[in-house]
Amino acid sequence: MAAAKNEDKLPTEKAESLFSKEQLLAAERFQRKRDVINAILEPDKKYTIKTVEQMIEKYMKGQVK
């Protein structure tokens, strides 16, 4: 019997999905942060969930002028 190849056990990189501002505004996940998303995201760009969460966190920690 042939031994299993090590290649089969290597983790594959998972490509993150990109979403538009409109999709993120409609997402249930960001329902309570719609105002922030509307303020910080550009309409013609695509974002990953991770990027948006980081942007929201940075915005929320920003200093008040």
Summed up, what is this model?
By secondary structure, this protein is mainly alpha-helical.
Number of helices: 3
Low-confidence spans: pLDDT under 50, at least 5 residues?
Answer: none
Q: Round the mean pLDDT to the nearest integer and report it.
A: 85
> In percent terms, what proportion of residues is strand?
5-15%
Outline type: globular
Structural category is mainly alpha
Largest sheet: 2 strands, antiparallel
Strand order of the largest sheet: 1-2
Q: Please, could you describe this protein's structure?
A:
The protein has 65 residues and is mostly helical. 40% of the residues lie in helices and 6% in strands. It is built from three helices and two strands. Strands 1-2 form a two-stranded antiparallel sheet. It is globular and about 35 Å long. The model has no long low-confidence stretch (mean pLDDT 85).
SSE layout:
Elements: E1 19-20, H1 21-26, H2 34-40, E2 46-47, H3 49-61
Antiparallel strand pairs: 1-2
What key phrases describe this protein's structure?
two-stranded antiparallel ribbon; 3 helices; mainly alpha; 2 strands; 65 residues
